[in-house]
Amino acid sequence: MSFFNNNFFSQPDPSVIGIDIGSSSLKIVQIKKEKGKAVLQTYGELGLGPYNKLSIGQIATLAPDQYAKIILDLLKEADISSIKGGVSIPLKLSLISIIEIPIVEEKEQRNVIELEARKYIPTAISEVSLDYSILPQVDDTSLEFIESNNNKILEDSKLKKKQKVLLVAIHNQVLSNYSKIVQQSKLNIDFFEVEAFSTARSSLSGEKSPVMIIDLGASSVKIYIIDGGMLLSSHTINRGGQDVSFSISKGLGIPFDKAEHIKRSLGKVEISEEPKIRELVNIHEEYILSEIKTVLTVFQKTKDSTVSKIILTGGASLLDGFLEKMKHNFSAEVELASPFSKLESPVSLQETLKITGMTFSTAIGLALRALQS
Predict the structure, then answer these.
(1) Which domains does the chain have, with CATH numbers?
(2) d(CA 11, CA 263)
(3) For residue range 38-66, what is the model confidence (pLDDT) as tens digits?
């Protein structure tokens, strides 16, 4: 089973769904192919909290049968007619690494990769499922030739005998749990895909230079750096939208659900204790900005490459003022993702979809891949 697709921009194909099982909500998008274009049919979202006696916006970890119930509820509520498509696997439940292997014949690659993967995977290889993609080789012409003791210029063949590989590993128990969800939901799922690849597919527009995607979710902030359609690195900051809501809740002495509502209302309505709320939110934003700067600096130094654009996605990216803070703190172009723009949709919905799209990047990316199948 393939966890990811090398080409984010392949031409799609008939009516499919993408299901994103997030940390605080579950999202489904249904699209179809019409006259060579991907067309939005319907979409929907349900919070996980109420299914675990928690508030909307709170993180909930549920059993497979509970996730299946939410999917069935959402299929009905959003009037989803298709059961064919893909399901996301959270980044935290996968291991993504770039490894090096000797250049070998294609038929030998898997054995060599599995052998090398043992160095990166903290469990027995038999306990995980592996997928991989060979990265394009870039020759370093500055080191292509060396001078021998006899003053002859000789090609240094050793410099070209390593191949970079993007490796994805998922524990078999994780796949077993997700398979149970699919079975109990009576879905016809073609693939599971790590959310990083789905998010990239719906967020990128064929950029040629390195791009940083920042997915601000309820439980964490995920950072992906993509170059030429390939994932070069991924990082997780263990702080998210739920932490902001808990700070407001504790700081003002109010219930979580009210704090969540206030957080989402910032900049839209007048709030009596706004200065204090802004101060509480700022603590989290400054921490996240600092971590992003560290990731960006390390990448640009080690790769000797510059990130030209930063794309924000995820529900917490809509925090009032955060986009402006990002633009102020980084020299790269900063913009919000617009995943629904990849789909044909009614003109009357397009303004709403610009905002809603922040939470549907992964589901849309999954559905776009499903259309390719």
Answers:
(1) 16-138+164-372 (3.30.420.40)
(2) 39
(3) 999 999 999 999 999 999 999 999 999 99
